[in-house]
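Q: What structure does this chain adopt?
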Amino acid sequence: MKELTFIRDNIDKWQKAEGVAENAMAQSPDQLADVYTDITTDLAFAQTHYPESRITIYLNNLSQALHGEIYRKKREKWSRIITFWTHEVPQTMYDARWLLLASFVITVVSALVGVISQMADANFVRLILGDDYVDMTLENISKGTPMAVYNGGAETPMFLSITINNIMVAFITFAMGLLTSIATGWYLFRNGIMLGSFEAFFYQHGLLGESMLAVFMHGTLEISAIIVAGAAGISLGNGFLFPGTYSRLESFQRGAKRGLKIAVGTVPIFITAGFIEGFVTRHTEVPDAIRLSVILLSLAFVIFYYVIWPRRVHNKQNKTDQKQ
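A:
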């Protein structure tokens, strides 16, 4: 390739990289690393084909500037923790917004399948949840305490057990992407059927309202986080199935990196959901208005953090890039 052609094809990218280096504080470490990788690749090409050229010196200086900014970022451990939750996760969620929608649709459709199946066959829930769980619930209903399952142990051990289990479910949902995104989709489908058949079972016993108030006090966060983890698993699986212009390995690595960031981002949500389930859900005597308020606040948070805030972060980043 002629040097002029090489410069013409890449000059816009290099100018953007200069802007990134100059405004490094506004960039995430991952963005810096991606730009640095692109520049060092071009530098290696230039060193091979135009070793005495001024463009080689220019790329070398630019790569050194980016390298310095990356390692400066590494020293900012505490600020990185903050920007991870306020910038990196939301930006990643924006990039994965269609995957999140797909995960949500799979969950809703499967929940409807669970509802329809339970309404058609009253014993369907036994196939999904098991005889022991169903018999225990029927006994609780007969005693007038249908939600007694949430009051089955000491609060702190229950909170820890629930939180650990939920985090494991999220990472299993993500890890299923190793078997392609279809496997993650199946896992989401399975969870959705469980939810739908469970609620339909309570509807058949005239307890749908009580069930939904109890379940969704913690379930709004818990189910939402599983849907988000589903987006992470689909990202992982799609990275292998649909490499696009990347090699299959590089595409898989990018999908895994994005998916892992999404999955890690759900951990605080599961901790909060576990706390509510362990300490609050058991108190079914709490006025319905308060329980409904908890559900609505949880839903508002989920919509804001996973839908509205990512778009704001993305738009802000776009404005910054345009100024550069």
